[in-house]
Write a structure and sequence with these properties.
The chain is an alpha/beta fold. It has 6 helices and 9 strands, in the order βαβββαβααβαβαββ. The radius of gyration is 22 Å and the shape is elongated.
Length: 250
Amino acid sequence: MKIFRKVVKIDEEKCDGCGLCVPSCAEGAIKVIDGKARLVSEVYCDGLGACLGECPQGAITIEEREAEIFNKEAVSMRLKSRDKGNPEKMPGEEKQEFRGCPGSLSRMLQDSVSSQPSTKRTECPDRPSLLGNWPVQIALAPLKAPYYDGADLLVSADCVSFAFADFHERFLAGKTLLVGCPKLDDSEFYLEKLTRIFEQNNISSVEVVFMEVPCCFGLVNLVKLALERAGKSIPAAFTRVSLRGEILES
């Protein structure tokens, strides 16, 4: 039976699949399916909007429309099934039940540590670091510094240097580095900091290198918005890296 009531609406174009809204929905009405947050069923949504404040992209709103009646009994059955490890599946939904951000999902990237070739230090002499500035964390970086002048700026998600084996040679050589995590840190602070850095310095170019997990794409959005707010037309490149250290998109 359908009635006119409040229910969640998700803008798929704005949604980046970060999954922050999933654990905030106590009824289990939202799932990440095919890389996008989706309303599993109207009967699970109470329309109170507890998930609204968790979306960094502003993709979730509440609308009044004709929808199925909120069913507490159906919600209770769904949650019990989920807790037993047998949740109902929607088309495109992953088989593995995971209630948090997709970027936090544990996974084994190698069959075993022992299967990797052993490299002795005598066979691989120390190479000099190509890091040319300090500090590198966005939160600690100064607004103005000599190393920004005419710089090719590299804005990197902090996990990239661990996933990509030749990070120094491929990305860092000859560049000024800023590092951060768009999920764990304050995005509004990042936006303000990056905007002022672009405004106050003569930066020649910027490259953003980020991981393939959905929430990491937030770093791309932050840099694009900071450039727009700063009113600067600076050449920008964006490179996505896989968890196995492969360049997926550049």
